[in-house]
EFCB1 protein
Amino acid sequence: AAMSRRRLQQLVDSLGRSARHFNKSEVECLIKLFNTLVADSNNRFATVGFDRNVFRDTLHSAFGMTDDVLMDRVFRAFDKDNDSCISVVEWVEGLSVFLRGTMEERIKYCFEVYDLNGDGYISREEMFQMLKNSLLKQPSEEDPDEGIKDLVDIALKKMDYDHDGKLSFMDFEKAVRDENLLLEAFGPCLPDLK
């Protein structure tokens, strides 16, 4: 069911305001892309949006993401109302930050992705989980988990300003502002420059 012209215009206008990193014609293109993805997917959410699988396929094909844990977390960061479905508004607003977000927005977004249990902290265990997934397995004698534990220790040393053994948003933000490369310290969750 194609959107009526008027409905599309209203959507473009309101998203043009809320997804402020896109101009109106870009918003319109993203809405069309969204409708195409929904139409192709014929999933049970087709009336409102698309599900995790369609979203993951898109992350994979468009942005080269491969890490399951992180793709799952990116899905949750986009899915603001937690209904397991990405609506057109969540899609365009999510991409606005994902593709063009300010440093501030990207810091918030990455923190949200890395805070696996949503408790407002990135714990040692969460870092371990993500690094274990995103690092290439090296065929070596030692226990690979040891190397990851070392990395977690290094990350904490560098980023845990209040020394409580976990990263609060303030820790994370300060670390990234001091050293931008730390933005994706625990795995790629933003598109690469292409």
Q: What stands out?
A: The domain at 103-182 is CATH 1.10.238.10 (Recoverin; domain 1). The two ends are 33 Å apart (CA to CA). Residues 24-41 form the longest helix (18 residues).
